[in-house]
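Practice problem: predict the structure.
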Amino acid sequence: MRLSAAQVSWFRLRRSGLVTPFSSAAQAASRLVGVQGQIHSAAGLALGNRVRDLTMRKFEEALYRRRTLVKLWGQRNTLHAYRSTDWPLITAAFRNLPTWLERAIAREHVDDAPYRALLRALERRLAEGGTIGRADMRAMRMAPNEEWLTWGGAMMRLVRDGVVCQAQGEGSETRFAHREHWVPGLRWHPPATPDAQRHVISRYVGTYGPATVQDVAYWLGLRIPEAQAWVDLAAQELMDVEVEGVSRLALRADRRVLKVPAPARSRWPIKLLYRFDPLLLGLKAKEWIVANEHYMRVWRPGGHIEGVILVRDRVQGTWRYDRSKGGLTVTLRPFARLPNTVLRIIRARASGVARFLDMSLVKVAVR
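Answer:
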């Protein structure tokens, strides 16, 4: 089956919730297979762009009170907000992947007995209830190396194993809680790892596809042969499609939806997508959404990804916000002059960012 670039772009925007909003933050997180959450506000705004009337307060209620969302380390060894009922699936899919600390221990030929003892002690402590942070772990005096207690150190393994998740922090300190205390009613029946990986690939392709194996590897944070093994598990659910002369993978179940012609330009979304938005992380190849000459203005050194001005199917600039006592200032940096009709919509989107953050919009600056 042959598809145009416009058909594929329209499919991705629809499936990622940028055309028709999702009914809830949990539904959005499930369809997106997690929302990168290492920058807390970025995860919230990613969902806010896809769920009508979502605010930071409601996002945090979903995470920390109703707990329909949960923060875990997942793809790319980065923290994501997932639907809580997807926790068993995410655990099963990623539990066999080594953490950065485990790779360091193996590389340096360090005896891992103290590491295993620390994991057991942390699990016992968390099973008692409450939450713990880095200061609590340091007070246990069981880590021979301070690195073991850093962001994503020993605790990443307990998250990988489905024992704990990130809880609400206290001040600037990240804290963690035991699964059985944090979401006591969660049914815990993780599938077999191959079944989980097959399901993750199917959900990924159904949202971000059509995609190549290179895209899958990029999204998972794995080498291409490892990603290919995941793709092979889902082979019966996948089919080859041709997009502008390039073979890509799509779901067989999406054959009819993929064939839908791209609509008139007036129906395409105009959005302020914030930093590390899922749409910017879903595929290795970026030229489908941003011109090559603007790549370095979005994907910055050090792994930083800027917020972008999405005008229909193309990134037309970057943006950031700044807080002050008076309210919120949104600064737009378009790649070229934007039409007044687009600017009016973008200003309305900036007001939406302010509402999400429960702030007043002071100014929209165009640089």
